[in-house]
Amino acid sequence: MEDFDRYGSSVNASQDFIQRITLIVVIIIFLSLLLVARLVYLQVAGFDHYETLSQENRVKIAPLPPVRGIIYDRHGEVLADNVPTYSLEITPERVVDLEDTLSRLQSLLGLSDDDIARFRNQRSRHKSFESVPVKLQLSEDEIAAFSVRMPFFPGVEIRARMIRVYPYGDLLGHVVGYVGRISESDMATLDPDAYSGTYHIGKSGLEKNYEALLHGVAGYEEMETNVQGRAVQVLGTTPPLAGSDLYLSLDVRLQRIAMDALGDWQGALVAMEPSSGRILALASKPAFDPNPFVYGISHKAYDALQNAPGRPLYNRAVRGLYPPGSTVKPFVSLAGLEVLGLGSEHTVFCPGYYQLPGSEHKYRDWRKGGHGTVNLGAALTQSCDVYYYDMAQRLGIDRLQSYMKRFGFGERTGVDMDGENRGLFPNQAWKMKQRKQAWYPGETLIAGIGQGYVQATPLQLARAVATLANRGRLVTPYLVDRAEGGDPALPHPAHDVSALPQIAIRPEHYRAVVDAMINVVHSQQGTAKGIAQGLEYRIAGKTGTAQVFTVGQNQDYKSMHIDEAMRDHAWFVAFAPADNPSIAVSVLIEHGGHGGSVAAPMARKVMDAYLGYTHAVP
Amino acid sequence: MPTWDIPMQFHDPDLTALQMEQGPLVRWMRRWHIDLPLLFCLLLLSGAAFVILYSASGQSLVVVGRQCMRLVLALGIMVTFAQISPRRFREFSPALYGVGVALLAAVLLMGMISKGAQRWLDLGILRFQPSELMKIATPMMVAWFLSHGALPPNFRRVLIALVVIMIPAALIARQPDLGTAVLVAASGGAVIFLAGIPWHYLLVMTGLGGALLPVLWYFMHDYQRNRILTMLNPEADPLGKGYHIIQSKIAIGSGGIYGKGWTHGTQAQLEFLPEKSTDFIFAVFAEEFGLIGCLILLLIYLLVLGRCFYIVLEAQDIYSRLLSGALTATFFVYVFVNIGMVIGILPVVGVPLPLVSYGGTSMVTLLAGFGILMSIHTHRRRMPV
Fold this sequence. Notes:
The complex is a heterodimer. Chain A is α+β, with helices and mostly antiparallel strands. In chain A, the strands form 6 sheets. In chain A, strands 2, 3, 4, 5, 10 and 17 form a 6-stranded mixed sheet that branches. A 5-stranded antiparallel sheet of chain A has the order 12-11-20-19-18. A 3-stranded antiparallel sheet of chain A has the order 1-8-9. In chain A, β14 (353-354) and β15 (363-364) form a beta hairpin. In chain A, α15 crosses α17 and α16 (376-382) packs parallel to α22. The longest helix of chain A has 35 residues, at 11-45. Chain A is elongated and about 140 Å long. Chain B is mostly helical. Chain B is 70% helix and 1% strand. A two-stranded antiparallel sheet of chain B has the order 1-2. In chain B, β1 (121-122) and β2 form a beta hairpin. In chain B, α4 (61-83) packs parallel to α15. Chain B is globular and about 55 Å long.
């Protein structure tokens, strides 16, 4: 072996070394080309793919919540407004010790456990650098108390947000409804992009029904964000589009009069413009203040409202189902006139009861001694039951039901409010389907006086009486006249009166029924004659008494000492002025007893006010 | 004055090409044993490094300044090493190796006491990583050993050389620092390869190594296995173990041919790219300067390597040849392992991009190595032809 450690080394060994160095160089060139090939693959072939990924990495969309639409009454009074409210918010990542901060805030501002629980829930849905509200609607005192101690609460700050306010409180709780915080179940059905910056959503009333219009269109900011999602710069902005403002047909002054008229009774009052179906007032008592729901009503307070006597959250005007009682008689009268062709001079003898052929059972009249021989006018004015038993018997339940349906009985009115009940006017097929029983002839009789299976909402009766006032044009009641602004892609409410269905009523039949209804108020025999005093216009009305308790065959109703819960519901439906109707009203008072004495004066108050008369009801 | 009149003992490519024509600077460099072309290439690389480091650090002049200080220090060490003759290096090889292994053992012992990974010794004023020392000491030792016997080495001597390599490599792998262990083993292996180990030995060793891979897999830490699995399929765990490599590929790929422009790489500037100024700095470079920038950077590396190979071929004794060849090959291995990792063809091991990544330890080691190469080149005896 040669000694390589000298220069003049072996030519062979030196060549071998050079060979190996050459091999290394070849390998290096090969591996370098491999790197280059991979770079070409990534940067040329894969450029579009990775460019997209890099854009997705850096550009985030930040929502810009739209301003919720304002709700106005027909005169431009604000019924639902947005006002800045000061809320206490925490940015979790800037807080040193969150638990300590929360407990100190709890003692400083008296945060409730509900507040804390809600905060924790919200916090889990936000990133740690996003601020989360702890307490909404700080009072002046709370703002002051916190502001002076702010340096001791890093990461906690007071922020202004827009919040919904209902200036009229419980006056319109049932109509306007309320917004509340978006719940987990709401999230399931919402478009998360449209609502990502929004904290509230309509939960009831018009707020719920017109949620899409009121909400508006969310805008967004394209933000360049770093790896934590923190915004570095704004790349572009699409401004939000404020929600539509709603203009109601409702008159808040009339609403107040209606609510005041109801007083402490439990019941409902609906006032409507007959020609159009525009709702002028929609009152339900007991009422509730929607404002606490906006800030997040506590479970305790909510349960208390839910279980309060009289159930204030329950909108009796559109959901309450009551037997309409004698208020159906104008419509049954028309059925007799139009369908049977009996004529208004057809008479029936009323001995105080009615018996079906071959039956011993006596169907009582409300007047024990009977009304004697009555024609249609007398029967309607005095609300003779026997006349209508006879009428119903002649019509049969199916014909009666199909005629009543034309006035909207047993059908939803289509009002622009959530949760409307459809009521019920039975026929044979209905009973067979629902009760699996044949129809009894006696049931026809009591349906003819609006009892038994028959159920209707105060709104349905207002609509029916408005349709009568309208000479048969069946209106669709509505609260929202028009919506302005907002998303043009959404359908805005439009009301085409000419498209409404028309019920054919011959003028003499109309005259006969309306004259009788005028006599209900303006004649000495009228069941609502008590409200006629001092009237400077004429009202066409009909009282009703909805039986809550079934009186036995041989019992004397009048002599019974029944407690208030057993007392009948009182109805009054009316329109005025009788010759040229501009307002139709239905009033229901739960356990009010007789319609003429309790419900009718309330209707008059509303009519007086609407028609411009201010006479006090005696 | 025709250059071929120069007496042969003064014949040197550098002298003829540069010194005679360029005068005092080159002569001064020559006196201080500095190889001007290599220094130029290294400074070019460092310049590119500062440019990209400024961007990767979020435009921090502080970071760049600190790195600049390190470069000055490392250049000082390089020049110092260049003054030492290759004979001295050879004489000190066993001692250096011995000290290095002892320190590695000490580090490991301390690590066992403190029950955690430990790679450095705290010498009070500075932290010293013995594994870095071994990147140079190991090839020195193997070159020393093999140059003291007949070449090509016989089987017994190859085995001994392998043991010499495996001792520090195993100790480093135990730290655990697989990346450095592989690099140390590669530097030693390069010496054996250059010493003329018969080709059939190489084949057998490659075969054995392949057979041992499953065994190695068995002894690996979980995180080390994960790195390999992640390289094979980064999308399997995009937010966890695959995150580095996915973000790195996005950065590189989105750079395209021309790049997003200096300091405009969104992946890097918005911090999607992890370890962007250290191990993954090449991805920043690729994102901001594109394919063209990458090719230029690779070209600078190849320039450095080209000069180094020239020095290797000009080396006059076995020890110098083996050591310089191994150091040069290892330098490329660094580059390849880092870039290969960043572009997703090699597992993620903690190997910085030589002379570009932020950090001083590897820079000192690398420039010390280049100092040795300069020493080898500038201490040659003039060869009569």
